[in-house]
Design brief:
418 residues; alpha+beta; 2 domains; 5-stranded antiparallel beta sheet; 11 helices
Length: 418
């Protein structure tokens, strides 16, 4: 029989007293897609789901914690937000959410280009919405996205938790969003009531500054995080345009290559690292990158799927391959790239959350048949860790010159650490 209350956590269950109910009005400032109970589906009448919002709030609450024991962290999280902490312990959420008065005034259908290789450029940059391509092309789904939406979020919670809940709400409004790909700025929000106290980036920096142990843990934390910001030169009423410009800069940074941007060899070390570890390369593409076997872009999240162009000069290069954490399918990016709307300005923001990197990485062919018929892939060495940047070049067109991988990202996006 399940226990409905955590008697072992008196701080969370005693002295709750009065309940508070608050309404907050939100507006969508960048396009939203996905986020329904089924991937890529979207209820166009009510795209914002209370369950999805609660998941975001749980994440941002967690970033404020300094718990080193993951079991204790889960107990505390579930005691406030609800959930199971084991086979016989179930907690009812102390926070009740309701999404009301949803008004969608602009909705569209995502479409592929004539080659079926990527999304048509539009409100959502094709680079950030790449998962949608397979949903449309392979799964034959109709994927909708919303660009204008307003809604009211009603929350009820014990008064004793007011400070925690309101700070979590503000963090989510500043740095999170609704729907899919929120870590790349999709579905960003503005709420005047929650953000009226923030005049500029210094206020945000002070707000997210969390005291405590800045050591890296298995979950994302604000303690030890890095915030980099720049003010937008575009109008305050155009956050979507500011965001698209920021994401396109991120795309150019991650995909920089020689000559023809579609077929030229990459300036980054990963393609040659894969050629070295698989022992496959075309006669025209012998590995030459000076960094050897190194995967700096793993710093932005895993897995990374690499598909070589095997036409003409690329004949003989490796088959599609995936770089992933050892013993896990993914490692979500600790890097948040987005636009924040304040009362009188727009900010380009890159937040690097503090989280430990996976113990190891491995390469695995994307197709099961290739895993048996091709050469065994050599193990990814520990020195391939993205933090191993000392003496590295990284992008041959813009060498690191002592910078870290993340500092190079900040420079490319025109943001400065504050």
């Amino acid at each position: 029989m399940r226990t409905l209350l955590l008697d072992s956590l008196p701080d969370f269950i005693s002295g709750e007293g009065q309940f508070i109910t608050r309404d907050f009005k939100f507006e969508l400032i960048t396009p939203m897609f996905g986020g329904d109970s089924k991937s890529w589906e979207l209820n166009l009448e009510a795209p914002v789901r209370a369950q999805s919002v609660k998941g975001q709030l749980r994440f941002w609450w967690r970033t404020m914690q300094n718990e080193t024991d993951c079991t204790e962290l889960l107990k505390k999280e579930n005691a406030l937000w609800g959930g199971e902490s084991g086979n016989d312990i179930r907690c009812k959420s102390k926070v009740i959410l309701e999404v009301k008065n949803q008004t969608v005034s602009d909705k569209n259908t995502a479409k592929l280009n004539s080659n079926g290789t990527r999304l048509q450029e539009g409100e959502i940059p094709a680079y950030v919405a790449f998962p949608v391509r397979d949903a449309i092309k392979n799964d034959k789904l109709t994927v909708y996205y919303v660009t204008k939406c307003r809604f009211t979020l009603r929350l009820s919670f014990p008064a004793v938790f007011e400070a925690d809940v309101l700070k979590t709400l503000k963090l989510w409004t500043l740095l999170g969003g609704v729907g899919a790909r929120t870590r790349r700025g999709c579905g960003s929000l503005y709420c005047e009531e929650l953000l009226s106290e923030f005049e500029g980036d210094d206020c945000i920096k002070q707000f997210i500054n969390v005291d405590g142990d800045a050591s890296q843990q298995s979950y994302c934390r604000l303690a030890g995080a890095t915030l980099a910001v720049s003010s937008s030169q575009l109008g305050h009423s155009e956050p979507d345009k500011v965001w698209k410009r920021l994401i396109n800069s991120y795309r150019d940074f991650r995909q920089s290559r020689k000559s023809d941007p579609k077929y030229g060899r990459s300036y980054w070390p990963e393609p040659d690292a894969i050629r070295r570890l698989t022992r496959y390369h075309s006669s025209m593409h012998a590995p030459t990158h000076p960094d050897g076997v190194w995967f700096p872009r793993a710093a932005f999240g895993l897995p990374i799927i690499t598909q070589f162009n095997q036409n003409i000069n690329g004949n003989g290069d490796p088959e599609p391959i995936e770089l992933k954490p050892e013993n896990a399918s993914r490692w979500p990016s600790p890097v948040i790239i987005k636009v924040i709307k304040l009362r009188s300005k727009l900010l380009n923001v890159v937040l690097l959350l503090n989280q430990e990197f996976p113990d190891g990485m491995e390469l695995k062919y994307s197709k099961a048949a290739d895993r048996t018929r091709l050469n065994l892939i050599q193990p990814v060495p520990a020195t391939a860790h993205p933090d191993n940047y000392s003496g590295k070049t990284m992008r041959t067109n813009d060498p690191l010159k002592g910078r870290s991988v993340h500092k190079a990202l900040f420079d490319a996006l025109g943001v400065k650490v504050i």
